[in-house]
Amino acid sequence: MNFNKVFTIISIFIMTLPCNAQLTINIRYSGANGAAKKYVKEMEQSGIAARIRAVEGCLRYDYFFPADDPEGLLLVDEWADQAALDRYHASPMMKEAAALREKYKLGGRQIRMFNPLAQNPQTEKTAQIMDNALSPRRQGLAVIAALEAKGDQETLKKAVAEALDNGLTVSEAKEALSQLYAYTGFPRSLNALGTLQHVLAARQASGIQDDPGKEADPLPADYDALEQGTAVQTQLSGQPFNYSFVPATDYYLKAHLFGDIFARNNLSFSDREIVTVSAISALPGCEPQLIAHVSGARNMGVTDSELRALPELLEEKVGLAEAERLRGALKTVLGDNHTSVQTVDFSVWPKGLPNTAYAQYFTGNSYLAQMEGGLANVTFEPGCRNNWHVHHKQVQVLICVAGRGWYQEWGKPAVQLVPGTVIEIPEGAKHWHGAAADSWMQHLTYHKDVQEGASNEWLEPVSDQQYHQVISDPRQRM
Question: Taking 60 as the threshold, does the pLDDT of residue 160 lie above it?
Fold first, then answer.
């Protein structure tokens, strides 16, 4: 393969990455008549590979031979940061390795780069886009509304403090949490108001003076709640709405919710719909109401950009399931391109931290949480799977605890992983495991029957073709 072409391809991958990010590059080559093995042998015997490994910041430089391609070669090299990779690119070894590949006529088949920092869902660029679409004040309204509906008081404490710091007034916070009794019930509303009260008292005791804000203006003596509420409901729905099936509920909606509550002018109509949409996103099984309020929010002045910024905010501050519900509603109302995925509740089994130590052996993002008793909880995002690998002198046990995924041994049909599935992986068996394409997956793992000299041997990635063959027809054999 032409050296300049390889360098150009890699440069395209890396020029947008942070200069202090750890980088892992996977390059897959193929040859003929044993050329790949001859190339590796000469790289090692000539000392070129050793000199590359000695470059400051080189964390690994290793070769693997894929079992599905007798003439293939996988190079995995890892660098501490961009500067380390640049040092290698400027070294004579880069050209020496390229010349040797030319000698053995190795062709490039696939180049992948992994940047662990990219696993952080709240990147600087994403944060900037969200801030431009949704003001910090409205972000605060959305987050405390969703957490009120979720009933997560501990996280709500932090969110309330952050919202107050970002310009939300005390009056607005009270109003938002009070309004929500009509959507989430008095118990959750009162719990959240109690949390707000405690946060305000603690801040005052520490010397923080929060902006009390403007209270709602008194309603005029001749105010007609039913008439006003009917008009507001019509504006939100885009047409007259009468719930004749239950006339009493129709009256409550018009006179009380859209009349008495929406008439209080310390929150605008669009503010109230930001609050409502965010709260309903946190209520499982209320998708029809969520879709209706996404549509209604647009009629009340909430922009499409603001609506599209909400799922990212909810995923970061509230939860993945809440964000997914809203993304589904936006797909219905706005026609956004989104494939629904099954989520998991990270409050049951922790998501943990990005699995950077083993990231080079995974396609997609995974997360690791160390548990007591030698257990580890591994979380896979949809479509994520680890490479083919072998456990020598030990048996690995997998216990699926959330979501859906797959386990497969070489030469055998795949086995679906669902909560409660237990897999004992025989010593020496080549296998992989990972999430379904449309679901997150979590499994616990530990090793047993561990003998002296036990080790893991990581092999080639599960190709997209292999993976999609399994998920489309698990009866297919390798």
Answer: yes
